[in-house]
Model the fold of this input.
Amino acid sequence: MRGTQFRIWATQKLKEYIIKGFVMDDERLENGKVAKTYFQEWEERIRKIRTSEANFYQKVRDVFATSVDYNPKADYAQKFFCGSAKC
Done:
């Protein structure tokens, strides 16, 4: 019985990891049973992800700007470089 319960729990956690790329212990978070450095570690990870994402998008913009038919005044180019923000 306990083996079956464990396999069900483990399968749920693995599925969550595969889909999201991470798993969090919500029960421990809700009950306040986490080390004080836990959130600092997550902030550091998130900061690295954001930096990596910014570097990736900069490389994409660099490639776009060096394309043969690039016209910086074209609507599509201005929309591309503005991203989701209104320019």
